[in-house]
């Protein structure tokens, strides 16, 4: 045999602490056909700084779709199907780098996904630039070994083969045709080189994670062995591996035979059904194959009598796939949303999810039983959702499983007429919905009965759009798109339906009131600025108070939300007003000449606006203007002190009752903002930040110029004429 090795690599990604699915870093690979060995090379590394500690990285694997994970232990939405993912842990302790190998023999061909993340996030809000987080990097590489000339086992044809040694197993493959109801595999004349009964192990199927449904035959001391498979995967290559369990150097000769039992499909579609499509829809060409392989064009209605129905093993309902948007598909039944279901053969619907871009959403299937259509009160409609091949024997087994897939069962009755199934991240494949009428006293009781079931099926990025307390985000890894929910207000879970830690409506209203009304503490600062003739500064404080109030009113999750304009605009104006308020306050304290002060006001505001547009959350957007303004203020104070030959400001009362309290409040505010805020305490710690900053501004504003008279409205309103004041004297005023 000729083996070909291939190597696939992707760039490393920086890992994040887990709080929602968007924190998990996704890797997408495609395993080629005829692969007999798959080896993952997982490389994890961390930085060398003192902030880097021991860390455990969790890596999840899944075939066909991104892994469904739940590191936080939250609840999934009702009716959602959840199967635990296959995961491993990689520990970074004393070593800076860790290399781990994961081997998979006879993997399934197609899409494979790896998701990696760090432990749960601490919830602390870190200001960008105040601390340097430790970088944890992860890279996944894939090495495959595939057989270039894998022998093909033709149905009904005996194939003689030889297993050379236990170290070299035999690999063959057989193609499963469409509408195959079953497969019979036989191993004949299994003899060793000494003409004795062989000891071999036969593995049918490929490994798929997190669950693998390989079928294994252990043939020891027998010449002939066989295995029957129900509902093998349609239109796929089925890999068969035979390995010897005997002596090291003993060869084994075998004969293999595979044959299929066909399923004759019936059709209920007619040419007139295409008139139900919108004019914008284009139906299949006449004579083309329908969704389930049956002819979409027939001369009349499908046979309705029982004798004709018994000759069919299934009844196919034509389904049209309608692509709406990214990871958004609606399935329309040509014969209407209601489908007939009887007991003689299952009714089959094909839901096509094999484009390679459909596995990043949620498949929702809703069934509604028309109670008036069921003549037998104790009859039940059994339904099964499966991938790759349909379940064709619901009336006998009702276990909703095929040869290599465990399906999702549903049940309808007159007492429970509704059923919903949510498949999170459905694997890339053809999905089949099988429905059949079942009677408790036997199928003979149901021969003449028929039920009407309304079927609604669609693919959506996020189920229920993540609800009122979540936001559906579309994520991307190279060219692959997938969706996930980001929850707010303490809600959690895959679709933000877990209210274990949810905030009550009262708590949400309290948080909104604290974050908005705390901005009213700028009113004393505005009043002081107006009283001391600092009208430009008062205008800036008013601007900051207004936009900070309505930004936090719009930023709240849940029901206590009010947005007067676009969220991004409110956020930008809030950040701009906050930084400019600090800028103008420190420049006002420097007591430079008015012309210079106003030039610095305008120039600094323009530069701050530019820097915020470049990086809105950067710490230097606030620290840069503050430090530069402090340099100007210190230089001006030194100049005034040298010129007057004593400390500036000269009054000890000014230092004790105004400057020191204002500076203390400012330092406390910066400490709360930079080191104490978390997701849980944000609403009151950030409110404290508002109060402290506003109070510090009121303390730090300098007194008005000595030549300025206080506001005297009565004097200004008694006479309509006013003598102009010569303002040139302020050029020589000593302050």
UniProtKB/TrEMBL annotation:
Belongs to the TMEM8 family. Residues 458-497 form the EGF-like domain. The chain crosses the membrane at residues 510-534, 595-614, 620-639, 655-676, 682-701. Its main location: membrane. GO terms for cellular component: plasma membrane. It is a multi-pass membrane protein. It is found in: Cell membrane. Residues 278-309 are annotated as: Disordered. Keywords: Cell membrane, Disulfide bond, EGF-like domain, Membrane, Transmembrane, Transmembrane helix. It comes from the Eukaryota. This is TMM8A factor. It comes from Pluvianellus socialis (Magellanic plover). Disulfide bonds join 462-472, 487-496.
